[in-house]
Specification:
Chain lengths: 165, 331
Amino acid sequence: MANEIVELNDGTADLIIVGIQRRGVQLAGRLVSLIEESEGVEVPQGSLDITLYRDDLQTIGPRPVVGPTSLQWGIEGMNVVIVDDVLYTGRTVRAALDELADFGRPARIALAVLVDRGGRELPIHADIVGKRVLIEPGDRVDVMVDDLDGRTAVVIVPASAEEEP
Amino acid sequence: MTSALGKDLLGLEPLSSEQILLILDTAEPFKEISERAIKKVPALRGQTIVNLFFESSTRTRISFEFAEKRLSADTVNVAASGSSVLKGETLVDTARNLEAMRIDMVVMRHGASGAAQFLAERIESNVINAGDGTHEHPTQGLLDLLTLRDHFGDLKGRRVCICGDVLHSRVARSNIWGLQKLGVEVAVCGPRSLLPNAIEEFGVRVIDRIEEAIEWADALNVLRLQLERMTAGYIPSSREYNRVFGVTRERLERAPRDILIMHPGPMNRGVEIDSDVADGPHSVILNQVTNGIAVRMAVLYLLSGGRPELAEAAKGGTGRRGGAPEMTEAA
């Protein structure tokens, strides 16, 4: 994925990698270090919390926790790559695009996801995909990263294994 | 289903320490929004908030208005002067008329203690107390806590002394309750005529000399001497007050540790606090003002929404999402 990001943007010039809270941020960090290994360049990294831009904020019950947003580099005229763990309905990405627009006008925005599980509800597609899986709407894809979960893994949880309250 | 804070924010006394920490934690990411070029997020789009101010206010009203606007809410300011209140309309009638115009929240300041609760029990909109008489001023208490936490991290075991006119101060009460819930040791210092009777029942230490307070505390919250009440004969004169209780540079220089100076404003320079101190290196008075917006955004955000009927309708449609942020567990 790191190589694809460099290829897609014709190198690392003007490149900025923005992870979506929370696991997208960890994945973005890994991509940045992989690019540094192969290209010898430390690409700027940002993080985005899209909670306040969700389209269901007025309808969901308890308020979701808001995480930090950090785009200290500025994105005006940059090649932005949004990184998230799982691409599903596309609503998170829609919110991220809206939020990025409030920070400036990038030259281009691309989307990189570790897992694309289908089931889109909006006309959004990923430019770079780690793994495509086709699973049922009730199933869940859990991406685990070392920093938050103590291990690195992608787990598909079938709906039948879910204990619904 | 209501928010983790319930319907209203009336004071810090009824809140648990978990609820207070939730507000402070939520305020952290909101600080960043005010640093952006476009200081606005769509979280409260379409919500209508009325700022109902029966007493004069500059800082609090503007701070609430900024917080509301930065969350994209629509706001209306109603001041008692120039409104139908002057024509004898009661508080409840004013509020009910506002509600008939389909509003979502009321932020109210009122001269009578308990006014916010009175209103909250009678209207469906969320009510946020922006100061009621000499009772509470919860968002001021919260921004003081946030400012202290910025500097000290965990507040447990820290010592804060509230100095000056505790008797007339709603800020003092919100501070005492809020600080104690987070494990802070609280003292008050001021002339006995400006301390409430039986202040010890709050569980606070009473310090009679400002020098001792400076020696004891990690932070001083210096209250405004309410000069407009000076005629009541609480103190001989503001000059004498400054000589005995004023926080001056000379007194601070004898402090055994770095001491934080807070003031809720508006300041009487040269009375309760000297200019050297207010503008000096120990002062976090302007940080308090900046934090005020973040804290108020957090409160507005946490109280808003959570409409059960809409939540039910939404459940059917979207299902679970992979990349969505985690939800709070709190009910």
